[in-house]
Give the backbone structure.
Amino acid sequence: MTTLAQTLPAKTATAPQRAKLYLPREHGATAMLLTPIVAVGLLARTWHWSELAVLAAAFAAMAAKDPAVLLMRHWFVWKKPSPEAPIAARWLIGWCAVLAASVAVLWATWPLKAFLAVGAGVAAFGCLAILVNLRNRQRSTLFQIASAAALTSTSVATCLAATGSVARWCWWFWALSALQATAGILVVHARLDARIALRKATAASPHFRRAAQVAVAVLLCAAVAAAALGHIAIALALALAVLGYMYDLQRQKNPTSLQMPLQSVGQQALLLSSVYAALLIAGLW
């Protein structure tokens, strides 16, 4: 007579497994990528259909990272077959097809020099991101800062698509967006370190906390400069970011706050970023 325990392994082995979906998992990074597209689309005060190609290319490039990293690890690190590899390969081919189609549109509609410059920057950062992930150095502070600049550079691409050139206000929007995104990323990493330390009952590493404090100080200096130059809406945006991140860094000292679900933390960060972008739009209009 077969027991229940004897039947369990067979049932588990034959149970269908849900196919993995290689879509962007980092909601905060996705917001940093897409928010500048919407904001610059409004600031440009005009629209060109190639902006859709920018949106598709940005999304496809971000989504292709995970399957690309997995395949690179299988080929160069683990060096052994895996059931995940064929699935990842199919997703990577699909995202690369979307990316290639989008790039073809931009090739046909952008000035050649601008296309080559943006393309070289995107390709360089893509290779860097894969290499950093292969070496498990994705928590590097310098890489996080580079990621903030790369993600928010969709503002430049959108301006090119909409107007055929990069307006002066777009450079300012990119710089201010990258500055806020950098501070936001570092504050989140400081929270993650504090959560880990709380679970292990050890002192949290001060690395990301100090980096976040420096980023917030830069935001504060920028807010003072914007106010002195009469750009009130931009100064308000920067001041809002300063207050929001200072508040988060302060509440990270509270064990109860550290137990807040990361989804709630992400929603609050998204709200702050959205209001910040809206104030930048008002200031640059």
The chain is about 80% helix and 0% strand.
